[in-house]
Amino acid sequence: MQKNQKKIWRELILVLAGIGFVFVLWWLLSFLISSTLFPGPLETFSELGILLKKESTYLAIGGTITRLLLSFLISFIFAFVLGVVAGFIKAVKTFLNPLVIILRTIPTAALILIMVVLLLPQYSLLIVTFLMMFPIIYEAIVTGIESIDESVMMALKIDAKPYSAQSIFRVIIPMSGPYILLGIIQSVGLGMKVSIMAEVLVGNNRIPGLGIIIKEGYQYAYMSQVFAVSLIAIALIGLLDLGLRLAKKKIKH
Question: What is the pTM of this model?
Answer without folding.
Answer: 0.81
